[in-house]
Amino acid sequence: MPFTGTDAQIEEEQTHFANVISTFQQYAPYALYANNRRRKDFHTLPLADRELLESLGYKERINAVDKAIMTNADFLNLVIANPEIFGHDLDEDEEPHLDEHEGEASRQAMHRHDHPQAGLHNSLQGPSHSHSQSHSHESHSQSHGPHDHPHGAKKKRYKPSEHDMDKLRSTLKQLVRDWSVEGKSERDLCYEPMKEALLQHFSDIPAEERRNFRVLVPGAGLGRLAWDVANLGFACQGNEFSHYMLLASFYMLNRTAQVNQHTIFPYVHSFSNNPNNDALLRPIAIPDVLPSSLPDGSDFSLVAGDFEEIYGSLDEDPSEPHSGQWDAVLTCFFIDTAKNIVNYLRIIHRILAPGGVWVNLGPLLWHWEGNTSNDPSVELTLEEVKTLARKIGFEISNERTIDTTYTNNAQSMLGYVYHAAFWTATKII
Ligand SMILES: C[S@@+](CC[C@H](N)C(=O)[O-])C[C@H]1O[C@@H](n2cnc3c(N)ncnc32)[C@H](O)[C@@H]1O
User: Fold this and answer.
1) Is the pLDDT of residue 391 over 50?
2) pLDDT band with cut points at 50, 70 and 90 for residue 94
3) Which residue of 63, 290, 310, 341 has the fewest CB atoms within a 10 Å radius of its CB?
4) 193 lines ligand 1 (CB under 6 A)
5) From the CB of 219, is ligand 1 less than 6 Å away?
6) Is the CB of 332 under 6 A from ligand 1?
7) Is 334 in the pocket of ligand 1 (CB under 6 A)?
8) 277 CA → ligand 1 middle, Å
C-alpha cells in the first residue's frame, strides 16, 4: 500500500526511510572505523606492552572482529537490497558519507580480508505483506540530511548518527531474540506464556477453527510472536512502525529460503564484559525455522505504521474496520512505548470484540520519559496501569511476574533482568 498523508508528511517519511537505508549501507565503514581505533591505540603502546598483548592474541581478535563486521555488512546489504518494495524512491545518485579517516579504515579492512562489500541485488519480487502509513519516533532531527548539489556533482549521503547505528546494532541482537536457536530461552520466557494464555482463552475452539479468530500483535518487532501465533492456526496481524524492524522482518519472512541460511555476529561491537573470545565472536545462525513454512491457508500479515493512527482512528476505513473486530491483542514489551497509556488502553479495549482477550507481558520502561522533542509522556506505576485497565473495562486475571532478559548477550558479564508484568485481561464492558 502506498504511503499516505500530506505532501510534507510523505516527504518526511521518505527522507527518514532513505536515512535508515543509508545507515544500513554505512554500517561497515562505521563499525570498522570504531574497531580500527583499537588498532591505532595498540600502536601507541611501548614495544614490550605490544609484545605481551600480541602473545595474548589481542591483535588477532581485532582482525577477527573486522572480518565479522564484514559478514554482518554482507547480510545487512541483502536486507536492504530492494528498498522499492517499501514504496519509496531512493536517490541512487549519492556517494557514501565517509570521513577521510573512516574511508581509509574501511578500505584497509576490506583489503585485508579480500572481501568486497556486497553490492545491491535487484532480483527480488514484490512484497507479500501489506504496508500502510508509517511514522516513527526514531531520530528525524539529524542535520546531515541530503542537500542540494551543484549540477553534475554527486550529493553527499546522510551521515548516520551514533543513535542510528545503535538502532542497527540492536536490530542484529533482535534477530537473535526472534529468529535463532540462541534466542529460544528468551522466547520461551516471553512468548510461550502469552501463547499459552491465548490457547487457554480459546480452549473450547477446535484447532481447525482458530483461523476464524483474529489476533493483533502491536509493536511486533521482528515478527516472531506474530508468526508463532499464525503457526498455531489463528489469523494474526503484526503491526510495527520502525523501518529497521520492518526491513529486517520483511527480509526474514519473505526472503529466506533455508534454516540457518545466514550467519551474523551481533556481539562484536563492544569489547567490554566479555569473559572470553566466544562471548564476543560467536556466530549466530538465522533463521532457526523456515519462516515460509506456515501451514497452507494461514492468515498472517504485518502492517507498517503507527499503532494509534491505524487502529485508533475513529474515522475508520469501512473496508478495514477495527472497532470490535479483534478477538485477541498480544502486547509484548509494548505498552511502555505509549506517550499516553490511556489512549493505548482505550484503543486495545475498543478494537477487541466483547469477551475478547488482551495478553500483556513487559516492564514499564516509559520510552518517552525525558524526551527532548517536547512530546507529552505519561508515566504510571504498574498498580496504576492495572487500575486504569479495570476502569477502562477489563477484568485482569492470571497475573504474575516473569523475570526475563531482552536481547541480552547470554555470555556477557553484564545482564539486565526485567521483572516483567504478565496478565490476561478480558473485555467485560
Ligand atoms: C521493545 S520493542 C518489542 C518488540 C517485540 N514485541 C518483542 O518483544 O521483541 C517495542 C516495539 O514497538 C514498536 N513500536 C513502538 N511504538 C509503536 C507504535 N506507536 N506503533 C507501532 N509500533 C511501535 C517499536 O518500533 C519496537 O519494535
Assistant:
1) yes
2) low
3) 290
4) no
5) yes
6) yes
7) yes
8) 32
pLDDT tens-digit map of 401-413: 999 999 999 999 9
Whether the CB of 186 sits within 6 Å of ligand 1: no
Residue pLDDT, tens place only, 226-244: 999 999 999 999 999 999 9
Residue of 348 and 115 predicted with greater confidence: 348
DSSP state of 145: -
Q: Three cell numbers at 290?
A: 523456515
Q: What is the reported pLDDT for 156? A: 72
* Beta carbon of 239 within 6 Å of any ligand 1 atom: yes
Architecture of domain 161-429: 3-Layer(aba) Sandwich (3.40)
**Residue nearest atom 7 in ligand 1 by C-alpha distance:** 221
Comma-separated ranges of CATH 3.40.50.150 domains in the chain: 161-429
Q: How buried is residue 397: exposed, middle or buried, by Cβ count under 10 Å (0-12/13-18/19+)?
A: exposed
pLDDT on residue 429? 81
- Torsion angle (degrees, nearest 10) of CA 69, 411, 138, 322: 120
Q: What type of residue sits at position 418?
A: Y
Q: State in Å: Cα 407 to ligand 1 middle.
A: 14
Burial class (CB in 10 A: 0-12, 13-18, 19+), 213: buried
